[in-house]
Design goal:
- The structure is a homodimer of 261-residue chains.
- With 261 residues, chain A is of the alpha+beta class.
- Helix content of chain A is 45%, strand content 19%.
- In chain A, strands 2-6-4-5 form a 4-stranded antiparallel beta sheet. The first copy, chain A, has a 4-stranded antiparallel beta sheet with strand order 8-9-11-10.
- In chain A, helix 5 crosses helix 7.
- In chain A, 54% of the residues are buried.
- Chain B binds a DNA duplex (30 and 30 nucleotides) through helix 7.
Chain lengths: 261, 261
DNA sequence: CGGAACGTTGAGGAGAATCAATTATAGTGG
DNA sequence: CCACTATAATTGATTCTCCTCAACGTTCCG
């Protein structure tokens, strides 16, 4: 509560509990995470490609892209992080980043040192499990994005991305699937879908014609969600939002204590 | 040793210990994993898209592709698994698959029930951590593949894939980076790179001209590895093979016991 | 108010897909 | 062992999606 990041941490806890079971002790431990607030200006890379990091970045507000780069500098965003997401959670167990993080708009971060997260993960196996599962969710998104950029047409690609973000923004109470603030440029959309900015523009126009989807003033409006989902061949299951999985480590831990004593 | 899968488990342990520190107790626990051997014929899907699973598939021999599908059935492979890889480790904490697994050649699996893996992960925090980190490594590959299929030309894409597999096969003692058995068809290569089989064929021809790379009798030969790596813009850091990371959970666990007693 | 970033549109070109046919290879059963 | 078949590799011709280059309008922000 004292923390200025309380709201973002609350979102993060909700993100975790949507996929994992946490005890109230565990939730409290997460709420107690110490870190510091940092403002990032738009289009600043705040984690450089290939640099080791010693803290994680919880997105409080704004939009963050994880990206890789071609030799000539052309970028491909591999995942987008919105408020409540821990953008580089994976760095807790693998501190050398082979990727970069960039603010796609003015962004507020809560930087949490690895040692903080490691501490609560070690004290609470349930948290370690939830973090592990959270990394799986990220990986599942990467994997779906491979399919998206590898095999789908431009209209389908963009529609799919918009559908994913619609669901995710809805989940963190920043709008709903028919209308949400999405502070990204067409260049950014192109970097996320493997298209050029020009072709992204044409594709958006085509989606506007086909389905009435508009992206105006950084706000996406989707009049007919089912239609867009159909155009985007979107099925939300890869987001792993279908309820918390049964705990495995903590449960088994109890079992193992019974065996030992 | 009694297990027919001993060699594959040994490879898996090596995969884990190349990124994580395990005690000999922990290694023993992994070696003791009970499962059953299963033969899969070439081109058989053995994990269906969207099906829940209750076991993991350790590849003993052969080649496995994780794939997603377009509505019309066109496939995109999002990761390849070779001997010693646990193809669907993520299902341990997230049992509903949003993807499928397919044998790209005749393949031998060691099917290990989730409960087995959960048991040893709960008893040995170091194993849980190593498995978590292993999932990060998979995610890192997915992420790199997004860049590969999203932003690179066909020649670069194929070269990058060949480089990745060269390093990985070398790691599991199935050849070296200049020559390794890679039992995949050109159609499979296309599904992995987001290209058609026809264009994959032309691309391979071009790589053969440029750099002498040949793919004959399911064997890849790379006369000039550095040149291919350059064509493929390949940097191996995303494979997370640069030595085991310091343990965090087990180490902190000791710390926390000290605090408590 | 002025400059920079962003969005939009047009024209032309390149790379990959598609369609189609032929050759090679591997696996199968008689 | 060999014909038979299916799968895989190869090549050519054509089409189409998306990129590139370029210009101009618009919005944002200091």
């Amino acid at each position: 509560m004292g923390s200025p990041a309380a709201a973002a941490i609350e979102l993060f806890v909700r993100r975790l509990t949507s996929r994992s079971v946490l005890t109230s002790d565990e939730e409290d431990a997460i709420h107690g995470l110490k870190g510091e607030v940092q403002q990032i200006v738009s289009h600043r890379d705040f984690v450089q490609l290939g640099q080791p990091v010693d803290h994680c970045c919880l997105v409080m507000d704004g939009l963050v892209g994880r990206f890789g780069q071609r030799r000539d500098g052309a970028r491909q965003i591999t995942c987008l992080y919105i408020p409540g997401d821990l953008a580089d959670l994976s760095s807790v167990v693998s501190p050398k980043s082979a990727w970069g993080l960039s603010a796609l708009t003015g962004t507020t971060l809560y930087r949490v040192p690895h040692v903080e997260i490691r501490r609560i993960a070690a004290l609470h196996p349930g948290i370690a499990e939830a973090l592990w599962r959270d990394c799986i969710a990220d990986g599942s998104i990467f994997s779906e994005w491979v399919v998206n950029v590898g095999r789908r047409s431009s209209a389908t690609r963009v529609a799919h991305l918009l559908c994913e973000m619609a669901i995710r923004y809805e989940r963190c109470d920043r709008g709903n699937r028919n209308s949400f603030a999405f502070p990204i440029t067409q260049l950014g959309l192109g970097d996320a879908t493997g298209l050029t900015a020009v072709h992204t523009n044409r594709t958006l126009k085509s989606l506007r014609m086909q389905s009435g989807v508009t992206v105006r003033d950084k706000t996406v409006t989707i009049p007919d969600w089912n239609q867009l989902a159909s155009i985007g061949e979107f099925k939300a299951d890869y987001l792993l939002f279908d309820g918390p999985a049964p705990p495995i480590i903590r449960m088994a831990k109890i079992l193992s204590s019974e065996l030992h004593y």
